[in-house]
């Protein structure tokens, strides 16, 4: 701990980077701390993932995002955000996990696995991709159960059960089927959910022709080494199974927010408290930015609509500094 910074930013995703750029443009000292690699959540997306948005809506810091596709893919995004970090000479410590944030008078002490830092302000810009929503069924602890998906080749000639009805489930089902897997989907609702408009008809057609088997209004009830149990409107079924792909979504690290003292709503959504104009939490000079603001409602905030949080926060900080002069 060698200096007191104006801002510590927790998370080096696109919004954390945007906050760093905004701080830098305002002449504020800052450090971005990231527990994994740069844009760690994007790195862990499936290999062939394509964004729903066009490249211009993923841009930060005024730097153009060139893409040869109408909608950029994962590898293009990783390249773009690396270029942003280098072009802006952003001050980032990677693979340094924040374990605690405590008040020290007008300052905050930020403890990591590598050291301790002091700052007047803290911006929490972490995502929600690290903690999967569990199925809570017997056998979920088996190695065959996957909450993350990367490459379809691995599942060639395997019996794959996909749980879920949204984008991730659709991508897993279609990609693994096209690479030779026998795919069954278990869908809690009566129909498919939020799926990219160019993917949904494809999946609907594969289900209609019987290439992919789908059980609607159904749920997975148990998992064993070579089979799985499903409850459908017609009754219970047991199917042969090699892998269960539980594409049931993810959630923010609520325990971390509670630990540092951020208030959460008492309902299932667990919305963190913040002022929508300043992005300040119930803790003075601790701010939220990006998808973390949505609590369990992870389909509210994206890169596209939360880039503005960076400017809101830095504008607030600068206005307060001006008022003190």
From TrEMBL:
Keywords: Flavoprotein, Oxidoreductase. It holds the Pfam family Pyr_redox_3. Gene3D superfamilies: FAD/NAD(P)-binding domain. GO terms for molecular function: oxidoreductase activity. InterPro entries: Bdr, FAD/NAD-bd_sf, Ferredoxin-NADP_redctase_2. This is YpdA family putative bacillithiol disulfide reductase. It comes from Adhaeribacter rhizoryzae. The lineage of its organism: Bacteria, Pseudomonadati, Bacteroidota, Cytophagia, Cytophagales.
